[in-house]
Design brief:
With 273 residues, this protein is mostly beta strands. The protein has 1 helix and 14 strands. The strands form 4 sheets. Strands 8-14-13-10-11 form a 5-stranded mixed β-sheet, with no helix packed on it. Strands 3-2-5-6 form a 4-stranded antiparallel β-sheet, with no helix packed on it. It has a 3-stranded antiparallel β-sheet with strand order 7-9-12, with no helix packed on it. The N and C termini lie far apart (169 Å).
């Protein structure tokens, strides 16, 4: 790995030149079955550099041309597989498969973001953050109350670029923290940053007047005496006067006499006719 750029250096692939071959194909893959291809490079012998007349060599890496498929950004700690074959004037069998492992390089150092170094008014429960390191998946975070970072109050592994304390820190006290990349490559610690928790707010000077509770007597309700119920007098129903039985008989007799007289008159009248 190039410690300045953080990228892998170029890798030179070489093999013995068959006496009749003029063109080759170099296959690079993530797996030995060459199903996860990284690059396939066509190599005419007229453009290859040679160490001897019987050897072919070609460089592959992050600074090569993408047009020729020689541009490959090697990943630190990654294993690659490669093989080669002649394609002109005739196709040959594949060479044996070889593997290479890119050496893990030191991870970059995270930059402190928040709380900023020297902050003198941090909250009691601050949130910490730092810049991500390319390719890193884990970080180690430490928080201590001394610049030597001995016996840290917090020593935690996180998968994000941030950490939040779960308990309040002391008012007016200075704390120190640092972070580093942990996986897949262990990096160096960042610079130790310090911050101071804000002072405890002053107590209010205005006295709060006492609360006076006034007892209010219970209301009195006067219920008037009950009035006697009114007396309702219903007069008796007058019965119709009784008709004397003697009058009834007289009326009946007179009616009968009249009926008989009418009948007699009718009969006489018929005889005269």
């Amino acid at each position: 790995m190039n410690t300045v750029t953080g990228k892998a250096n170029e890798i030179s692939f070489s093999w013995e030149r068959p006496s009749t071959a003029t063109n080759y194909k170099l296959y690079i893959s993530y797996d030995s079955g060459f199903k996860e291809s990284v690059s396939t490079i066509n190599i005419p012998t007229t453009t290859t550099s040679t160490t001897t007349l019987s050897t072919v060599a070609i460089a592959v890496g992050p600074d090569r041309s993408a047009d020729t498929n020689q541009l490959v950004n090697w990943l630190p700690g990654k294993t690659y597989y490669w093989r080669v074959k002649a394609v002109e004037p005739l196709n040959s069998s594949y060479s044996e498969t070889r593997s290479i492992v890119i050496e893990p390089g030191a991870a970059l150092v995270p930059n402190i973001l928040s709380p900023t170094n020297g902050n003198e008014s941090a909250k009691q429960m601050p949130s910490f953050s730092w810049s991500p390191v390319s390719g890193s998946t884990e970080y180690q975070f430490q928080l201590a109350d001394n610049v030597g970072m001995t016996s840290p109050m917090v020593d935690s592994t996180v998968t994000t670029t941030g950490y939040a304390v779960t308990s309040a820190l002391e008012y007016g006290k200075t704390y120190f923290w640092r972070v580093k990349a942990l996986a897949p490559v262990v990096g160096n610690w960042s610079a130790i940053a310090n911050f101071t928790i804000m002072d405890k707010p002053a107590a209010a000077t205005t006295a709060v007047p006492p609360v006076t509770i006034t007892q209010v007597p219970a209301p009195t309700f006067t219920i008037p005496a009950a009035q006697p119920a009114p007396i309702i007098t219903i007069p008796p129903i007058e019965q119709p006067a009784q008709i004397a039985p003697a009058y009834i008989w007289a009326v009946i007799i007179i009616g009968a006499v009249l009926v008989i007289a009418v009948i007699v008159l009718i009969v006489r009248t018929r005889r005269t006719v």
